[in-house]
Amino acid sequence: MTLSINGYSYSSMPVRYLTMRKGERVRWYIMAGLNDFDFHTPHWHGNTVTVGGMRTDVVAVAPMQMVVADMVPDDVGVWLFHCHIAFHFENGMSVKYQVRP
Ligand SMILES: [Cu+2]
Question: Ligand 1 centroid to 39 CA: how many Å?
């Protein structure tokens, strides 16, 4: 089984799709699918987000749950964004995002 984020697996999404600038206000819309295994724990490397007033680098979503995560990135670089469930990560659930100066 191959799992994906926005249809991309194993960090194959072109990084330009998720490129932002340091200090920019960025809003991430997270939504899980409707299969019974669609419990996910999206996790950002490099930067943190705010969800419901809590600063974090990981959130949990249940099937068809939606989460809004706000980020003001301060760490420049190319970072991994992936599901933290080991089985999902090992089966491709990762993309890269970029923060430019
Ligand atoms: Cu997952």
Answer: 6
The fold of the 15-100 domain, in CATH, is Immunoglobulin-like (2.60.40)
Q: What whole-number distance in Å separates Cα of residue 47 and Cα of residue 20?
A: 12
48 Cα to the center of ligand 1, angstroms: 19
pTM > 0.90: yes or no: yes
Cα–Cα dist 13/35, whole Å: 22
Q: Which residues of the chain have pLDDT under 50?
A: none
Ranges of each domain in the chain: 15-100
Return residues with CB closer than 5 A to ligand 1 (ion). Answer: 40, 83, 85, 88
